[in-house]
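Subject: sequence -> structure tokens, single chain

Hey, anyone have a minute? Need the predicted structure for the following. Not urgent.
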Amino acid sequence: MKKFVCRSVGVALAGSLALGGFVAIAGDTAASAKSTPILVGGMDSLNNPTYAAPETQAGLNAAIKDVNSHGGINGHPLKLDFCNTNYEANLEYSCTLQLISNHVVALVAPSVLADQTGREYTAMAAAKVAEVGGQGLSLAELTSPISFPLSSGLPGWFYGAVASLVAKGDTKIAILQDTNPTSQLAAQLVVQAIKSAGLTPLQTVTADVTSDPTLSTAASKVVQGANGIVLTPGPVVMPKIVPAIQATGYKGAISTITALFQPAILKAVGSSANGVLLDSQIAFTTQKSNKGVSQFLSDMKRYAPGATIDNTSLVAWSAVMLYAKVTSAAKAVTRSHVLAAFTNLKNAVNIDTAAPYKVVGQTQPYPPFTRIFNPTVVYGSVKNGQIIASSGAFVNPFTTLKNAAKNG
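Reply:
Had a minute. Here:
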């Protein structure tokens, strides 16, 4: 089971292959992609018992092989230079420096999780290396001039969790966090989201499995007077708190984000998860009618058989597709050209798994963050162990909540 870490909400929500460092350079060269290869970088933790996401590498590789099978970037095949960060702050920094030194033209969906100092983004900016398709998980990522997050980042996720409740008429919204500082940061975003809808947060309750092992006490507190509850805790708490809330007789809605309901959590929560509302920055992997998701599933089956199919692998795949479409149109093959192509992106690019993406002219929905170019989420809920989309439409939760405040 993955620990609640930065991929979930910002921060905790191998010298050799096993301990960190570089692992593999991958990328098929199709017959129609015969020009000089373009090297892109990726990084994530592969095998740390606290947090590991090998599906990031699998998703990147599957997308790159798809792109190369269609001619690459104007005849240039993509290659992936991937670094195992082992979920260590110093390795995240050293991986960034090494990828820059290896002459990658961009970092695609890199995971900067353990290190929240922002030094990785400072190094990328100094080298004019764009970060493409990240999840918007830190202040540095959401403010760096070289960062182009795939979607709405942490603010969008948690504003979406509130918006899904407000849209169904819930006005008495309580928050349950745990003792993790990241969970509490997320809870603060939820408070701001509730206020942006013209509502007053009901109560914020902290769950602590040390003093309240079954979480029955926390559950009884959070449900008091509530018709909607937003959850921000990690995997140690989540499988316990959902059944505990239901055991109180609570009949209202429970809302949270997809990153906190990865497959392992869904399995651990079991049937108690049925009906839990979730929002995602990108399409759900169960949305097979979505052309992007359908292609992703096909690519994973063909190029990464046996790899985990989840939000993480789909994010990685989607980031490559965004990179490929933008750079192909701009004929960008160098660092400076790639950075310029994204910085000057005026015409929306559609990869289907995320809302249409552009940079120029986008109004930032959540100051002081300045790098939210795609302020949308998609809504769904849990049914029999799967996350099912409510409609498949991408929605701006910031606008939804502002409109709710205007309409009283």
